[in-house]
Amino acid sequence: MTARATPSGRLLLVEPQFVLRRTVSTMARDMGLADVQEATSPAVARKLLSERRFNALLLAIDDEGDALALLQRLRSGDTPHPADVPVAVTAMSCDVELAMRMKELDVRRLLLKPFKVRGMLEVISALGAPEPLPAA
């Protein structure tokens, strides 16, 4: 039996697709990339962001604009998190307007769907090994 690696930081994964969300979170934990907390929607993520501290976020951009609104709140300091917390996003498509918006919101990585789980794990790794959270 193999030992599980110790996760290096806490990541909030906001992804509506159950299988993808569960697969990525389990693999990221097992590989020691992050202690992943799952959220099914931006609304759930807002609640989690108010209750817990995260070192990074991986956010699925939705058609309704809720995910972008959440990211804007985060960047404007309307959450208990630092405005510069590392964020990566996934999206079904990306036009010039969305790309510019992601740049304005300091998104570190953009991953287009469909992608392999390995791609998402690489994005989590690219967010950097998060430093331990300071005592609250």
Describe the structure.
- The chain is of the alpha/beta class.
- It has a single domain (about 10-125), classed as Rossmann fold (3-Layer(aba) Sandwich).
- It has helices spanning about 20-30, 40-50, 65-75, 95-105, 115-125; strands spanning about 10-15, 35-40, 55-60, 85-90, 110.
- The protein has a five-stranded parallel β-sheet, with helices on both faces.
- Helix 1 (about 20-30) crosses helix 5.
- The radius of gyration is 14 Å and the shape is globular.
- It starts with 9 loop residues before the first strand and ends in a 10-residue tail after the last helix.
How far apart are the first and last residues' alpha carbons, in Å? 36 Å
Return the CATH architecture: 3-Layer(aba) Sandwich
Strand content: 15-25%
Total DSSP helices: 5
User: What is the CATH T-level topology?
Assistant: Rossmann fold
The major sheet is characterized as: 5 strands, parallel
Helix content: 25-40%
Structural class: alpha/beta
Shape: globular
CATH superfamily: Response regulator
CATH class: Alpha Beta
Tally of individual domains: 1
